[in-house]
Amino acid sequence: MSLQEDIMTALKEAMKAKDQTALTALRAVKSAILLAQTETGAKEELTEEQELKILQKLVKQRKDSAAIYLEQGREDLAAPELAEAEVINRFLPEAMSEEAIAQVVIDTIRKIGAEGMKDMGKVMGIVSQELAGKADGKTISNIVKAKLS
């Protein structure tokens, strides 16, 4: 079953359960996927990689919003954002551990012979492409910085 079908099924279940948080989150996912399809002008469905990037973006947006709300002492606004992020997260594959990401980074550094921060862009490009949908870009960046410095 494709991601869009999974989202529609979950959306119907959320409607039946009258779960407003899930409804809001799933409608946002559906909207983002439809928008991406119309932007590409493609009649066929998006690739799995494109769908995963959309989901990751939506989760990141909600977590960033929640962090801002928490900085401002607005727990009442942060809680729904985090709940929506959790709903969307159910459709993402399980994230890799930091140790596994670090191993991929180390292997990539050895493979391309990276030396220092001047090669960070090369390493980030290769690792980000290899771990697309499996790891957060911020986590990858922090690990690459630590290994190259």
Task: Write structural notes for this entry.
Pfam families: YqeY (PF09424). It comes from Mariniflexile soesokkakense. This is GatB/YqeY domain-containing protein. The protein is mainly α. It is built from seven helices and no strands. The chain is globular, with a radius of gyration of 18 Å. It starts with a helix and ends with a helix.
Please describe the structure with a list of short key phrases separated by commas or semicolons.
7 helices; 149 residues; single chain; globular; mainly alpha
Which helices and strands, and how do they pair?
Layout (H helix, E strand, L loop, with lengths): L2 H15 L2 H21 L7 H24 L3 H15 L8 H15 L7 H11 L6 H12 L1
Pfam families: YqeY
Organism: Mariniflexile soesokkakense
Protein name: GatB/YqeY domain-containing protein
Label the structural class: mainly alpha
Assembly context of the chains: single chain
Taking the sheet with the most strands, its summary is: none
Order of SSEs: HHHHHHH
Q: What's the tally of helices?
A: 7
Unreliable runs: none
Number of strands: 0
Rg, nearest Å = 18 Å
The average pLDDT is 86
Helical residue percent?
over 70%
Q: Tell me the β content.
A: under 5%
Distance between the termini: 44 Å
The coarse overall form would be globular
